[in-house]
């Protein structure tokens, strides 16, 4: 076990809380000690919800461990029903309470509650938050969308599966996909779990197919419904212009509708903007991506296929989808970084020296320390990543949002040009970082030479007069000049780069 300041995912019961908090008419009775109620803050402070999550804790204390904690759970379940009158009760244990082995499901069943009781067994020491959300949604679907459900459909309809509370732009993604599908005359039967009730889940089989918005949460449920009811599901996540067009084509085939009018429309500004913007602003910018699997894979494709970036690193903390991330990394000639240790991610960023980092709130802090631009593309996120404005990631409007968000942290070509022209000025000196970066960090946009290791490059030191001379090189070739000089110095066995070394390297590579 490793002690860490940050974690990409919480324990699985937090995933169950995300499902319960997203739904209406469902209450979660959680067997947990007093300290585990911290999870409420994730929703009330980070997502800024106007109400507490529908969770009742048993909140047993140390003195209760010598008595009957099972009785405390039964009392909490009865009190929760009496107070909140839910359509169904979800019961489970936190990672701490799991050690007591009190069997919340059996205890709740013996409490004779007048509503369905759904127990979820979430192994806290083997699984994490997204798995917990996935397992909870599957258990709810299996409970309410049973074989007696009406499987008929009026017209073309689908279910949207996967959006949860505390999800990255999930609410806005639902709006975007609802509008997109409406343009194809496809109705939304049920969106789950967001804003769904247990009664809504009973109507899931009435749709023609399922749209898997976030595979980490919805894949298991969609696969079960395919086996149980013969319902197909989408495999394309519509993040980016290309993926959105592929999604429209996939949905059109599943629903047997004509999508030509939508595919022939220019509904996103991303392609035009990426073609028309200052080429030095985008083309060849070195980007490192680390996020959940869904957003990491989508970001890799947008970077390389739609914005002209150079992908230098790709990784994810979603171990359940590591195969998909590794396959995407191989497409770009990279080895995927699969880890939940933020220190490993920091080491990778330090070694690769990207010009832009696309990641979670952890990567934002890491990039800030290094003076690298960063855009958040995935949970875990901070309160500022729940904007008041409409800000989806999916669909054509989501592609517009992505362009604006990802381009903002970069240094424009004109800005680099001005910094170069006025490098001797006290206000625009070469040691000044672009205005959008909060603190001075390491030099951006300079990769270690391929022939030596990143550690060898970092160990090299530059004398001040050599650094000053390097700054006279035009910005658009300065990175290459530094890399060539460091490569030359390493091959010559030098640990310090002097002015003479810089000139010798220039002569060497000019031959």
The overall strand count is 14
Question: How many DSSP helices?
Answer: 22
Count of the separate structural domains: 4
User: CATH superfamily of the largest domain, please?
Assistant: Nitrogenase molybdenum iron protein domain
Strand order of the largest sheet: 10-9-8-11-12
Beginning-to-end CA distance, first to last residue: 55 Å
Give the low-pLDDT segments. 438-458
In the CATH scheme, the class of the largest domain would be: Alpha Beta
Per DSSP, what share of the residues sits in E-state strands of 2 or more residues? Answer: 5-15%
> What class do helices, strands and sheet pairing give?
alpha/beta
Please estimate the helix content.
40-55%
Radius of gyration: 26 Å
- Described by the principal axes of the CA atoms, the overall outline is globular
Query: Average pLDDT across residues?
Result: 85
CATH architecture type of the largest domain: 3-Layer(aba) Sandwich
Major sheet size, sense and barrel closure: 5 strands, parallel
CATH fold description of the largest domain? Rossmann fold
Summarize the structure.
With 511 residues, the protein is of the alpha/beta class. It is 44% helix and 12% strand. It has four domains: 119 residues, Rossmann fold (3-Layer(aba) Sandwich); 107 residues, Rossmann fold, CATH 3.40.50.1980; 144 residues, Nitrogenase molybdenum iron protein domain (Rossmann fold), CATH 3.40.50.1980; 65 residues, Proto-chlorophyllide reductase 57 kD subunit B (Helicase, Ruva Protein, domain 3, Orthogonal Bundle), CATH 1.10.8.
């Amino acid at each position: 076990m490793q002690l860490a300041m940050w974690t990409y995912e919480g324990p699985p019961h937090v995933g169950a809380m995300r499902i319960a908090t997203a739904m209406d008419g469902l209450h979660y009775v959680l067997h947990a000690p007093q300290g585990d109620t911290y999870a409420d803050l994730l929703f009330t402070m980070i997502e800024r919800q106007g109400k507490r999550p529908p969770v009742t804790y048993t909140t047993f204390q140390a003195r209760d461990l010598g008595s009957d904690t099972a009785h405390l759970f039964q009392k909490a379940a009865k009190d929760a029903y009496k107070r909140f009158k839910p359509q169904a009760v979800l019961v489970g244990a936190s990672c701490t309470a799991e050690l007591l082995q009190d069997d919340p499901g059996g205890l709740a069943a013996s409490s004779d509650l007048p509503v369905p009781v759904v127990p979820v067994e979430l192994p806290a020491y083997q699984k994490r938050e997204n798995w917990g959300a996935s397992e909870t949604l599957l258990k709810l679907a299996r409970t309410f969308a049973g074989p007696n459900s009406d499987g008929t459909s009026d017209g073309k309809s689908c279910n949207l599966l996967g959006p949860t509370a505390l999800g990255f732009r999930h609410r806005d993604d639902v709006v975007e996909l609802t509008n997109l599908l409406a343009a194809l005359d496809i109705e939304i039967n049920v969106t789950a779990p967001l804003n769904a009730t247990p009664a809504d889940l009973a109507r899931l089989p009435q749709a023609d197919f399922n749209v898997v918005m976030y595979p980490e949460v919805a894949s298991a449920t969609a696969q079960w419904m395919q086996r149980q009811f013969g319902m197909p599901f989408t495999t394309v996540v519509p993040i980016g212009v290309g993926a959105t067009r592929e999604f429209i084509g996939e949905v059109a085939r599943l629903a047997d509708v004509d999508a030509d009018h939508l595919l022939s429309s220019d509904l996103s500004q991303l392609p035009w903007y990426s073609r028309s913007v200052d080429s030095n602003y985008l083309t060849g910018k070195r980007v490192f991506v680390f996020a959940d699997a869904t957003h990491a894979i989508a970001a890799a494709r947008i970077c390389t296929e739609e914005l002209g970036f150079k992908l230098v690193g790709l990784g994810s903390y979603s171990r359940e989808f590591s195969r998909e991330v590794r396959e995407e990394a191989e497409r770009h000639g990279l080895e995927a970084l699969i880890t939940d240790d933020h220190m490993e991610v920091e080491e990778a960023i330090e070694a690769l020296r990207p010009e832009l980092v696309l990641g979670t709130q952890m990567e934002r802090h890491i990039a800030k320390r290094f003076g690298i631009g960063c855009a958040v593309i995935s949970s875990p996120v901070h309160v500022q990543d729940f904007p008041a404005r409409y800000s989806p990631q999916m669909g054509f409007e989501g592609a517009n949002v992505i362009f604006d968000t990802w381009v903002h942290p970069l240094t424009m070509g004109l800005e680099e040009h001005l910094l170069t022209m006025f490098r001797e000025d006290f206000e625009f000196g070469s040691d000044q970082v672009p205005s959008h970066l909060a603190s001075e960090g390491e030099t951006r946009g300079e990769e270690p030479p391929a022939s030596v290791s990143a550690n060898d490059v970092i160990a090299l030191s530059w004398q001040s007069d050599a650094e000053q001379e390097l700054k006279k090189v035009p910005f658009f070739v300065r990175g290459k000049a530094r890399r060539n000089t460091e490569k030359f110095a390493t091959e010559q066995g030098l640990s310090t780069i002097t002015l003479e070394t810089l000139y010798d390297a220039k002569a060497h590579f000019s031959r």
